[in-house]
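Class, study these two lines:
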Amino acid sequence: MEGSSRCAACKSLRRKCPKDCVLAPYFPSTDPQRFSEVHKIYGASNISKMLQNIPQHLREMAADSMAIEAKLRVQDPVYGCVGIIHQLQQRIIEVQSELLKSKCEIAFCNAHELQQQQQWQQLQHWQQQQPMFHAAHELSWLDSSDQQELTSDPSFSEFGF
């Protein structure tokens, strides 16, 4: 790469871009800011050494990683990407806590609903076991003359009235 087609690294360093420039594929001339930030943090010779010392198929990921780390270090000189990682870890803890709280609320609601169902079933079972009580209870609302009429009915005799 020579002349006007120099990579961002070679343009920034004001040198000719050799045909086998190790930086050219990862720092194109269309994105000079990317190289500028990485250069500010790592230095040009360290970037070249790092890229040359790793396998070809991993170089793009390494360059991307350096660019992200450099950008975050420029934004936050003290913590850099570690600050972002810490914020994300804190958010994960908060969300896990909210999830646990929600699961507890669901479990409580399910237990309450189950308890209500069991009580309803017990009441129904008790009512089925107590037909005499219900018949007598229903008759207690009637006048004594009405009770005599109903109790003389043969269908009530099977209940013992």
The CA atoms of residues 108 and 114 lie 10 Å apart.
